[in-house]
Structure to design on (414 residues):
């Protein structure tokens, strides 16, 4: 691996390398993803503002964690299309109120970005021609000026009414059967053709032609046309990366067991005496608290806490049953809780939002002296055996109660 001098003029951007995963998101999950995505977005906008939400979209680790907490397959390339589609569906009808817009998408939708941006410019007064230029040039850089074997097939442009933007785009490598997701952030970006990325990271696969390297100035005549005589530059790798494994199931090595175990211990076993009063969620059971705690961390967690996106699949499972079927009843209760908290905060009653934030603080405090055991597989088995109680569903159907011969499993991760 080779170091890269940090480009101080730009916020960190990076990539995620993902195994290809085909198949449509079922309507029952797509609708819930849109509702949860909107609720999470509204809380972030209230607590941290538009600039922070746009910045998060440029963070590959946070983006992957968001997809996992929304019930998508935690490791697959499908997260990109599904999350962006759900957010676009839920956010754009409220863009005037929220102040954020999502353009583009997969295939033919990516080609609509210029028209969508021109329409946004008319509504907001933003310089739409400049935004279109940024959209096209970011795609040219990742698709042409950096030849790493991935051909772009998805391009999304996210912009606030204040002009700050992020780009999320994804490319396919037929030879390796993987997809690579690229993230950009506009903050103080000075040049598209001279180290526009703070980082580009992924699996090292030999020499890669990189015409936006600072040492390639003499060989750059433009982004579109590349000369065969141009020298090659090794693509560097630094911290901001997500390289996810090909295996579909969630394994102990994919998860920070200390963090997951402490959260489970808190929400299932060691609730503070005033917990129900604190949350004003009378009757909420430990399973929904488990989901809400992970959603709370997606909203309030610091950057360093999103290095294991698989952990967030323990909120609402995955549509293919990994790590367990999607508990639709829990999912709906989580959405309703966030929605109620947002609506009350709009009229000045922010107690619920503060209580949800407190979940993150309590979980992090519980981690300080927590030592997990090795019963990770027991946790998975318990969730699967009890999935039918919570309306568990996968793309293959609705979960049924286990046979009488199946024994219950005690939760002993903590």
């Amino acid at each position: 691996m080779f170091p890269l001098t940090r480009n101080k003029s730009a916020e960190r951007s990076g990539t995620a390398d993902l195994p290809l995963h085909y198949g449509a998101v079922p309507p029952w999950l797509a609708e819930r993803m849109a509702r949860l995505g909107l609720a999470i977005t509204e809380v972030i906008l209230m607590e941290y503002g538009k600039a922070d939400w746009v910045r998060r979209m440029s963070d590959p680790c946070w983006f992957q964690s968001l997809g996992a907490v929304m019930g998508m397959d935690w490791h697959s390339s499908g997260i990109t299309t599904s999350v962006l589609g759900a957010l676009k569906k839920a956010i754009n009808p409220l863009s005037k109120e929220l102040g954020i817009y999502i353009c583009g998408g997969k295939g033919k939708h990516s080609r609509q970005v210029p028209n969508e941006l021109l329409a946004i410019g008319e509504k907001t007064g933003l310089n739409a021609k400049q935004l279109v230029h940024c959209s096209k040039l970011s795609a040219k850089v990742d698709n042409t000026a950096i030849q790493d074997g991935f051909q772009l097939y998805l391009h999304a442009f996210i912009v606030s009414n204040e002009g700050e933007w992020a780009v999320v785009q994804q490319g396919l490598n037929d030879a390796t059967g993987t997809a690579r997701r690229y993230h950009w952030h506009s903050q103080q970006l000075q040049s598209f053709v001279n180290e526009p990325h703070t980082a580009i990271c992924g699996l090292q696969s030999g020499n890669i032609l990189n015409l936006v390297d600072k040492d390639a100035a003499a060989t750059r005549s433009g982004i579109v046309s590349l000369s065969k005589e141009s020298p090659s530059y090794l693509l560097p790798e630094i911290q901001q990366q997500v390289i996810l494994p090909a295996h579909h199931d969630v394994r102990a090595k994919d998860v920070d067991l200390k963090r997951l175990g402490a959260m489970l211990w808190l929400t299932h076993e060691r609730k503070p005496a005033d917990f129900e009063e604190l949350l004003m969620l009378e009757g909420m059971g430990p399973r929904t608290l488990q989901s809400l705690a992970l959603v709370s961390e997606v909203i309030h967690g610091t950057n360093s806490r999103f290095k294991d996106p698989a952990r967030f699949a323990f909120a609402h499972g995955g549509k293919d049953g990994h790590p367990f079927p999607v508990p639709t009843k829990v999912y709906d209760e989580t959405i309703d809780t966030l929605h109620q908290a947002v609506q009350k905060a709009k009229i000045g009653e922010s107690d619920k939002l503060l209580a949800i934030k407190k979940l993150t603080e309590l979980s992090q405090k519980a981690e300080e002296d927590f030592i997990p055991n090795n019963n990770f597989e027991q946790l998975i088995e318990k969730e699967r055996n009890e999935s039918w109680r919570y309306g568990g569903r996968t793309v293959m159907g609705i979960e049924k109660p286990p046979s009488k011969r199946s024994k219950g499993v005690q939760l002993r991760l903590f």
